[in-house]
Structure formats: structure tokens, C-alpha cells
Amino acid sequence: MYKILSLDGGGIRGIISAVFLQEVEELLYNHYNIRLHEYFDLVAGTSTGSIIAAGIAVEKSADEIINLYINNGNDIFFEDIRDRRKIYWYKFISSSIFFFNRLISSFALYPHERNNRGLINVLKDVLGPNRRISDIQQPILFIPAYDVLSRNTTWFASNPNGTSAWFSNLELWKICVSSASAPTFFPPYPLPIPNNNTSASENNSQELGHIDGGVSANNPSLSAISHVLETTTHTLQDIALLSIGCGLSTKRFKSQEIKKWGSVQWAKNIPNMFLAPGAENSEKICKKILNSVNHNNHVNYLRLNFRLNKELEGRYNRTVRDFLSEPYNEYLMQKYIDRYNTDKYIPRNESEQLNDNWLEDEKYWVRKLQYVYNKKFRLKEDIDDPELCPSLIEATIAYINYNINNSNISVREQINNFIINNPPNL
């Protein structure tokens, strides 16, 4: 099988993807004594996913990628800029012309580079200052970014369709900066276009400004499948896809609230409102396409992602439900219910009853466990706050340990089944 790894965009929440990959890598090592770059044939990533994908392509481990977010998050999302953005969003309520002008200017954007810090310097250190995308041989690397001049998506690939492409000699870090330059967070990144007399790395007046690939493909799975079909002899029957997200934003909006929004409020909520639906559509289409060619119950598709918070009362269904006064992450809640059962030495039969039926009185248990463990179970959903890394790691591990699908299979078992069904090409 031709194995594709697809990684969504999501800013600092890319650490969720990295924790999933830690689980994948551990199982790969246990079964086959190999690491991520030795297992997948193609690794695709958008935005923060491009950084993870490139890290895998240069043989970084999942642990190293997790440490990148923990140790370098504040070198990408500067604390002073982050504080400034919070102040300006708040101050805009007063309709101050000064704060409005500051807010819509580059003053509130994270710079790509500042002194020895910034996304550029972090990626130069992690990926190497001179490594080109064409230097990547295995796995194939695939990164989408949006060209604001030509108004189309550039598919940066280490094996472009043809002998070479205009970007083949571009440094890998430049391509990742382009794909990760999310609108309203970073300015566009200009990529030099080589002509007949200059290389891409030389000073050049020609350039194409690129922004976050999530504008067109926050979940690059479909694009990656298309690239494989276009550049290889493989068919859909040959493809196995592991697709990993960065957590689903769950903030709800009421129509009466949105009616009052102006252009700035819409700009503030672009990441919440526009990136997730495209990723969800890609997820559903990929699943249907790959399942349509799966005639032997072969595990050829797996999507790893979870809702960051439960916002509505009761169980998920298509009916209209009330908003919870205290939203919470349900996997962290399950973890601490189990801990509470153990700490209080509740008999096993009573413990099972509590685990099965606690949703009937979920408000009570949210408040009770928050009090007992002095802990909030609601995850912040920001994509530019490195201080969230510990809680995102804890929630992802809880999801791996506690989520059970409709077939009564845990997330860890689902990952294991995918790996067993799609062994490496040794």
C-alpha cells in the first residue's frame, strides 16, 4: 500500500498532531523497529502541519516535534504581540479610531523574523538553513500554500509533476513559512522566482507572495491523493491514508450575535468560521472515496481528531440543545472521573455505573470534579498561545486513552489496526 500521512493546519494546536504521531511512532517502533519517516511514502502538511511534515521528512522524531512547540512557541508567537492583539480586540469595542487603525495594520501581526527569533529563525534551526525541498527523497513531501498574486494554490512537492519546478531549489524553511503565514496572524511571505540567470536563493526582484495553505486546503488529504494519482502509477486501491487534525474548535455563534458583527469582528473569527468546514469536507470526501474502493474491509483510512470542548447539553445528535454554562473537554472529564473513582475507592460495579450514566447529571460532575481537583476542564481554543501546550497534550492523551468509537474500539487500537493492515515497504 502507498501510505499517506496528512496533517491539518492549526497554529500552536499542531502539538495535538504531534502527540498523535508520538503514539503512531511508538507502535511503529514496537512492531517494525522503524520511525515515521521510514513508514510513510508521502507526508502532506498545511500551515503548522507543513512544519510537522517537513520535520518528519528531515527525520525528526515525534518527541522532537513536540519539543519544538513547547520550547519555541514563544519565539514564533511573541508574547508582546499576543498581548497587544488581545488589548486591541478589546479596545475596538470603544470604536476608537486609534485602536482600529492599529488593529487592522501590521502592528498587530506576528513578524516572521525579529532579531534572532521568529518563525524564520526557528525553522532554519529545525530544518536547516540551506536544505532545499528537492533534497527530500523519502518520504515525498507535499505542502500547499496560497499564491496571492496568481490567486491559486501552489502545491510544493519534493517530486513535482515533471523533472523540476520553479520552487525546486527553494529552501525548505521558506516554503514552510509561506504555508504557515495565516491571514490576520502573519503577513504574506514573498517567495523569489528564479529566472534564467539567477537561482531562487539569490536576490531577485521577481517574487510571489504566499499565505497559509489553509485558505484552500487546511486538510490537505484530497490534494495529497490527487498528487499521488498524478505523479505515480498507483490507483485509489493502492492508497492508505492517515489524516490527523489539530482539534475541532467548538465555539458556538448565535445568529443574533453575528448580525451585529462588522468587518473587524468577522476578521477576528475567520479562523473559527472558515478553516474548519473545508477540512471537514475533505475528511468526509476522502473517507467516502477510499471506502468505495475498499472491498475486503481493509483499514485504508483513519482520521484522528476530536472536539476541544463540549458546548451543548446531553449527547451529540441532530436536535437543538441548550448551551452548557460550563463547557468542558469530555476526555479530560472521563480521565478525572476514573481518577475520582480510584481515589475514593468506589466499588467497581458502582464505578462502571457512574462512567456510563454521568452525562445525566453532567453539570453536577463538572462542578464537583473542578472543586475536588482544583482544575478547569474547558480547553482554551486559541491557535497562537504556547501556554496552552500542556493542557493540549493532556487532552490528546486522554482522547487516545478514553475515546471509544461505534465499534467499541479505542483510538490506540484504531491506530494499531491501521499500522498492522498497512505494513511498511521493507
Topology:
Blueprint: E1 2-7, H1 14-32, H2 36-39, E2 42-45, H3 48-57, H4 62-76, H5 79-91, H6 97-104, H7 119-127, E3 140-147, E4 152-157, H8 172-179, E5 189-192, E6 207-211, H9 214-217, H10 221-231, E7 239-244, H11 255-258, H12 263-268, H13 270-292, E8 301-304, E9 310-312, E10 323-328, H14 330-343, H15 348-357, H16 362-373, H17 389-402, H18 411-421
Parallel strand pairs: 1-2, 1-7, 2-3, 7-8
Antiparallel strand pairs: 3-4, 3-6, 5-6, 9-10
Helix pairs in contact: 1-4, 1-17, 1-18, 3-8, 4-7, 5-6, 7-8, 14-15, 14-16, 14-17
General description of the model:
This protein starts with a strand and ends in a 5-residue tail after the last helix. The model is unreliable at 90-104 and 197-201 (pLDDT under 50). The protein has 426 residues and is an alpha/beta fold. The protein has 18 helices and 10 strands.
